[in-house]
Amino acid sequence: MSEPMMDYREVIEKYEPMLGLEVHVELGTNSKMFCGCSTIFGAAPNTQVCPVCLGLPGALPVVNERAIEATILIGLALNCDIAPWCRFARKNYFYPDMPKNFQISQYDEPLCTNGYLDVEFETDEGMQTVRVEIERVHMEEDTGKSLHVGGSTGRIHGADYSLLDYNRAGIPLIEIVTKMVPDTGKYAPEVAKAYVAELRDIVRSLGVSDVKMEQGSLRCDANVSLSPRGSGILGTRSETKNVNSLRSVERAIRSEMQRHGARLAAGQKVHQETRHFHEDTGLTTPGRSKETAEDYRYFPEPDLVPVAPDAAWIEKLRASLPERPSLRRARLKSDWGVPDLEMSAMVNAGVLDLVEATVAQGADPARARGWWLGEIARIANEKEVEANSLPITPEDVARVVELVAAGDLTDKLARQVIEGVISGEGAPDVVIAARGIKVVSDDSELMAAIERAIAAEPAAAEKVRNGILAAAGALIGLVMKETKGQADAAKVRELLLAHLGH
Amino acid sequence: MSDLVTKSATELSSLLATGEVSAVELAQAHFTRIGALDAKVHAFLHLDTEGALAQASRVDKARANGEKLSLLAGIPLALKDVIVQEGVPTTAGSKILEGWRPPYDATITARMKAVGIVILGKTNCDEFAMGSSTENSAYGPTHNPWDLSRIPGGSGGGSSAALAAFFAPLAIGTDTGGSIRQPAAVTGTVGVKPTYGGVSRYGLVAFSSSLDQAGPCARTVLDAALLHETIAGHDPMDATSIDAPVPAVVAAAKMRDVKGMRIGVVKELGGEGYQVGVRQRFDESVALLAELGAEIVEVSCPHFEYALPAYYLIAPSECSSNLARFDAMRFGLRVGDENGRSAEEVMNLTRDAGFGAEVKRRIILGTYALSSGYYDAYYGSAQKVRTLVKRDFEAAYEKVDVLVSPTSPTTAFKIGEKANDPIAMYLNDIATIPVNLAGNGGMSLPCGLAPEDGLPVGFQIISPAMRDDLMYRVGGALEAALNDKWGGSMLSQIPALESALIQGGVA
Question: What is the pTM of this model?
């Protein structure tokens, strides 16, 4: 049952969207937030647990200093104030995958507050910048994972039974909450996406998380509401949970705006509720109602002492901040001489780091960019994943660029090599050896093929001799077919024409 | 009765050192007495005979090998059932944990094992340490060895009764509002609540995190001090554990000198509502301290009158959250997991069946106090009172070194007498609760039998945070003076359990 949607242009004409974004980042600390258990992703269920993260009677949490440091780094990178003194709080609610049935989080005393992030996004008139204000950055622990078995939806309703994996329970989680973002108009979806992308780049540049959306180490809850234009009245928001790719952030916001628009136009209320976004349909479906606010009975966590980061430590961390991704982009743009559009294409595809790393391996910037934005991006799109999660490294790409430059690969062959690397066949040289890929450049071998082509298509050869060069195509095609595409087409053309008196 | 079981840990330590008795013999002597008489007392919920004898045997071997051993190596101990011990059932007196065998040792359990203490078994207590009589145990009440129809105090009634019944010379208790000191008072034993953060809480099944504190229970002040030094000290597994040297409580217990010490009698603890005989024995002890050269000063702590209500907001609030983990998912009782019931339904059924009435009362109280719209009025106000109580203590310590009061307003009451009157029950802890709110150290030691009922009266000494040595110094001196006066320990006057009959209450 899909809900009616309003045409996007109409939504924008009638309403002003208000955005709010909550991003959860799983920190890449070696151990969990409050115990020494490993945080490595993908281990067998319930193998990375201890009395503390299982919430066994008597067990107590102890704060992981590295998590505090990472949170401060994120706060500083987002221009936040760092609290000289703050506390953890318990958020109480029952859920089977939450070991203690309360989550240790922060409530009215977050570690970082009042920051901002300047976000660049693409408009019809070129790049624009919007300042997204950050309300707070706080620390909490992740929950375990429930796997609902049976039933058709994979959700708890209708499942035959559920399995619980507590490996994730207690992994440090940072929640970054924006203030309401107004005035984005028709670009609201793009701004949302650009914000998450910029945030991801910043967090990645800090080295505190691998920020992989598809693995859940960066998760976004996208809130949006519509305010009738000029009314100054805020609409009711919906909260689309755990959107797990940049593209989905954009699509989810757009879809929710269209859904809200249709409801409002029909005189219906927008319900305050959580929504789930479905990649396949591009639509959201309702989750939990938030009409009656849940009472989490927050109170200061009595098992932990307050966090009071030393001012000197904070300054030391501030001094250690890496180059801001936006400044870095400006630098790379000028170093590489790339136009705005190409730059934003790289950013949007999430390949800027990869291109830079490829260039660092000695590849020509234009070539490196070409591969990451071209063939590799195409494959990523096909597989519906981010380019950086494909099993191909900047080193691999640099090697391909090198081989093409040396004339050892044609572009066409290079694409095969890249496809092979991504298929897991190994590094470029391994793929080339295994697949027997080689550029046929031996003139005598090519000449023999050309002779055979001429013999097969004497009429075409005659036309070429008579100056109708367009007829060469058929002959070249034959040669390429015989050499299984491994010959350099330009070279074949050159030899053929010379042979036929040009 | 074997003479061995009436001896103090200090005396037993000498016998072990000289080889007059082995740790195995000592453990067996205690198990024999427990086996013969615990049916009357019900101090223990679980005996770990095999584990205890194995530990005793290790100690004997180590001694035979000439290893340097702790003074407490080979000494038997009774462990309150809210402290986890690896592989040994831990119920916290609740049905919801029936059959649970913890996969880990509490820090204090590990420390005691490491020095060779022989843990005989787990002692009865009010469910999740919530109560003042041990009647709230899901496994039935414990009886006071002085009079089996009476309560042994609570929540740690199993530990105090084990000491008074000569089932063990040492025990561990936990004290959230008086659960070590009040049982000590009504059984004529010694119980110490160390400074909050002085002893690790890691492995203590939490009731109220900001108030809970494990501590030593014994029959003498020196024995308590020896156990105190064994279990105290910083623990990286407990964030609230204080990273500072342990106060020298053993040396203090041995000093027997209070000359020049300023001892404050808290005006607000001891007036109306205190039994006449309790008041009398307390006053006599204060006079004795004055004779010993201490300066007695009356001090006023005006906010103590709000301590009890504040406590009954803070402790239930924290417990409502701490006890949320008992949900049938990972350990303990599971009820109703059939007919395709959801996890939520199973949680509800399990918690309904697994928790007793007092625990439910406090969870409900605490849930209410933390609720949106009520938080400021209840939990918030209670925290303010807590601050005021702390300030009262701070002001008092500007005038005196330690504070004293009766431990409990009455002697042991009859089993069942207050079971249906929670407020009357809560009032038992009126003199002990302020200490927990402020995080100070508190000790109870016997100061005589009330003339009207012949039952033990407890004397409470309160010391500033991390000055636990001060209360041991006063306690050691007072104990020695009282024993001189009586011509022996008060506990030597306890009626023989062998001939005692259970009257009233539930066996």
Answer: 0.86
